[in-house]
Design goal:
Length: 253
């Protein structure tokens, strides 16, 4: 079964991560190297609906695609299939909490993508990108960018490869949690009703601020420490006892 490479979705990595990732939407024309219907077709979709399955089975090629994207971004990735009847808007203008790579499989669909939220989704202003996707095209939408899609002429089938963002705040929380768990200076239990606890808190925060001066702390946040482990925590090959973070759900709108 056809499994697109991550390069087919993101293109040149230096350009993508330098210009578009977490910044601006991007369109890649004819990005897929093979017939996109080898990923999933309307006929496949109809067959699954005819089987009366409430939830479509996982497809190995899409699971492999999500695993490859999970490895690249070091975070959870999922695949969702959307079948949109001709002449219907898929959804009203809205935004997602995830980054999304839209892979057009069959039919065409008009997309309007707006800049990151600065106002209501209902009145997002002028679009940053207005484009019609054709089979094999890929559209990247950063999280929190409002968008709307419309299938004007024919049934449209597209896949959304969602990439759950890992914010700096989340990453810092994870690293700090690892550091304080490993450092016995943070193991005492303060009595929270004691008025001295609030005055002691800045001193405990200062221990974190001063940690890079401590050899043990440098080891903790260095290449072999919890920071590095947290950065790579979602790589699939590091999670042998957990299922791949991949599902395929079909929604007809």
């Amino acid at each position: 079964m056809y499994v697109p490479s991550v390069t087919e979705l993101v293109g040149d990595r230096d350009e993508f991560f330098g210009r578009h990732f977490d910044r601006a939407p991007m369109v890649r024309r004819a990005a897929l190297e093979r017939d996109p219907r080898e990923l999933l077709s309307v006929a496949d979709f109809d067959q699954m609906l005819d089987s009366a399955a409430i939830r479509a089975p996982h497809r190995p090629n899409l699971r492999a695609l999500a695993d490859a994207m999970s490895d690249l971004f070091a975070t959870r990735c999922d695949v969702i299939g959307f079948l949109t009847p001709a002449g219907r808007h898929a959804l009203a203008p809205h935004h997602d909490p995830d980054d999304v790579f839209v892979v057009q499989v069959e039919g065409t669909q008009l997309w309007r993508v707006y800049s990151r939220r600065g106002h209501d989704d209902a009145e997002p202003g002028a679009p940053a990108i207005e484009t019609t996707l054709r089979p094999g095209d890929v559209l990247y939408i950063p999280y929190d960018c409002p968008y709307v899609a419309h299938a004007p002429d024919s049934v449209s089938l597209h896949l959304s490869v969602s990439v759950v963002p890992r914010h700096w705040g989340t990453l810092l929380q994870e690293v700090v949690a690892d550091v304080v768990t490993a450092d016995p200076r943070f193991w005492d239990n303060p009595w929270l009703r004691d008025p001295r606890t609030a005055s002691d808190l800045p001193a405990m925060l200062a221990l974190l601020a001063d940690q890079p001066r401590d050899d043990a702390a440098v080891d903790a946040i260095g290449p072999a420490g919890p920071a590095d482990r947290r950065v790579h925590a979602y790589r699939p090959h590091l999670r042998p006892h957990r299922p791949a973070p991949t599902g395929l759900t079909f929604e007809s709108t």
